[in-house]
């Protein structure tokens, strides 16, 4: 009787199994699979293999040794507890006999039919949901010659190319007339904030993102920041932008970038969000420059941390609380007069509920519960704030001082075995302790924004008294 082939698992199951081995139970591996499968092709391992059968294969001392390979290979992984596992290439299968081949053919046909049915059902469900979503948000009725849409924005006659540093009226940037929006887009709520489109002059690009760009602009001789969408072929992109604008229009806080208005011409796809201009740039760029110039003093760092905390106090204290969901050093702007302010509410959400789901944000700043199952409360913002405190301490991008892959970082953060590094020789002990509390694995063990803001105010007061004395 032939010995049955041992069971095999994919890479996400290796990751999940390692979490079980370390004593931390993962309730669902769906989010783990979603994260890791984007980075690595699956490898397999024999869960039934005894240590002796690993033979001469190299023993992987860390989980990341398994994760480093993008292809199937042989390696043994020894977890913190329990028997080691062998990561193996799939076992060779002997040629089937004619009768076995016939049976296998019938099985394959049956399985294939089942798969076709399942795929058809899933496709039908997805199709129905997409149609319902498109009816809600509307789509762009495309011109018959849709190739012009690939050209993006172009300079109108007399205008200037996008990369030029010469001031250009917003009206000089036109889109090929190949698409128009349905009237179903909700523009009515924006009318009270509408600015004259031709009064906005784009000076030079400041930052570029996946969905939009930020420009230095001028409005009535006042410097402003102007956020524009990249070429959008569906109304959904614009509707999401409208929601960001409407949210920002409701916020009035000295520690949140001030909203000035919105402008659009005949096409909402050319909509522009206008905010105050912050002359110091974003915090990440300032920290990068400070590593060589050392011009960002600890007093300024403490003030910056306090301003961010005060901004979070405001957002989390609203009647309908706002969770930023993408708090990071790139989304903190500095100004020589007004200090630090929180910006970029593109993925922020208002909520009356206790929690939200769906993992949004940059993973190096994301809380363990968000990486694990997309679970959001305001405490997820506090974890991100703790990562920013670590950045203020070391002036480094989180985890760049460690030789770990992205998947290795994610796996360790999820189970609480990895946190951003603090410079304990240069940072005040109370500052390191505050950051450590914000980075607690359990969300309910992290301090509130109000508690952190109070502690920072007290520390700044004592520092000021020391300087005076």
From TrEMBL:
Residues in Protein kinase domain copies: 200-460
Keywords assigned by UniProt, alphabetized: Membrane, Transmembrane, Transmembrane helix
Highest taxon of source: Eukaryota
Annotated InterPro entries: Kinase-like_dom_sf, Prot_kinase_dom, Ser-Thr/Tyr_kinase_cat_dom, Ser/Thr_kinase_AS, Ser/Thr_Kinases-Pseudokinases
Entry's Gene Ontology molecular function annotations: ATP binding; protein serine/threonine kinase activity
Pfam families listed in its UniProt record: PK_Tyr_Ser-Thr
Transmembrane intervals: 106-128
The protein's name in its UniProt record: Protein kinase domain-containing protein
């Amino acid at each position: 009787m032939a010995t049955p082939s041992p069971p095999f698992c994919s890479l996400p199951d290796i990751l999940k199994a390692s979490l079980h081995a370390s004593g931390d139970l993962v309730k669902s591996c769906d989010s783990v699979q979603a994260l890791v499968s984007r980075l690595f092709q699956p490898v397999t391992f024999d869960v039934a293999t005894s240590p002796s059968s690993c033979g001469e294969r190299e023993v992987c001392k860390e989980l990341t040794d398994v994760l480093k390979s993008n292809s199937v290979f042989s390696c043994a992984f020894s977890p913190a507890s329990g028997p080691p596992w062998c990561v193996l290439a799939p076992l060779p299968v002997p040629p089937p006999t004619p009768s076995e081949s016939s049976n296998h053919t019938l099985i394959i046909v049956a399985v294939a039919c089942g798969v076709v049915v399942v795929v058809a059902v899933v496709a039908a469900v997805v199709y129905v949901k997409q149609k319902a979503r498109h009816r809600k948000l509307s789509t762009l009725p495309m011109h018959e010659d849709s190739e012009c849409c690939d050209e993006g924005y172009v300079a109108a006659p007399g205008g200037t190319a996008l990369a030029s540093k010469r001031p250009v009226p917003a009206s000089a940037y036109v889109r090929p007339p190949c698409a128009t929006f349905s009237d179903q887009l909700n523009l009515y709520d924006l009318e009270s904030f509408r600015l004259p489109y031709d009064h906005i002059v784009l000076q030079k690009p400041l930052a570029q993102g996946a969905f939009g760009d930020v420009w230095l602009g001028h409005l009535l001789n006042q410097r402003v920041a102007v956020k524009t969408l990249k070429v959008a072929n569906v109304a959904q992109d614009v509707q999401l932008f409208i929601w960001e604008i409407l949210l920002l229009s409701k916020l009035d806080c000295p520690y949140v970038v001030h909203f000035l208005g919105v402008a659009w011409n005949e096409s909402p796809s050319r909509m522009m969000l206008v905010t105050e201009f912050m002359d110091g740039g974003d915090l990440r760029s300032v920290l990068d420059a400070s590593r060589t110039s050392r011009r960002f003093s600890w007093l300024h760092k403490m003030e910056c941390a306090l301003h961010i905390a005060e901004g979070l106090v405001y957002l989390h204290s609203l009647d309908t609380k706002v969770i930023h969901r993408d708090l990071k050093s790139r989304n903190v702007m500095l100004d020589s007069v007004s200090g630090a302010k929180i910006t970029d509410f593109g993925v922020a959400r208002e909520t009356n509920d206790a929690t939200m789901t769906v993992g949004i944000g940059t993973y190096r700043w994301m809380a363990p519960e968000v990486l694990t199952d997309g679970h959001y409360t305001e405490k997820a913002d506090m974890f991100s704030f703790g990562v920013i405190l670590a950045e203020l301490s070391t002036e480094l991008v989180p985890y760049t001082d460690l030789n770990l892959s992205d998947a290795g970082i994610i796996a360790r953060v999820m189970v609480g075995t990895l946190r951003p590094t603090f410079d304990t020789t240069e940072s005040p002990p109370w500052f390191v302790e505050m950051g450590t509390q914000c980075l607690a694995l359990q969300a309910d063990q992290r301090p509130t924004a109000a508690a952190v803001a109070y502690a920072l105010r007290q520390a700044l007061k004592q520092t000021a008294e020391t300087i005076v004395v």
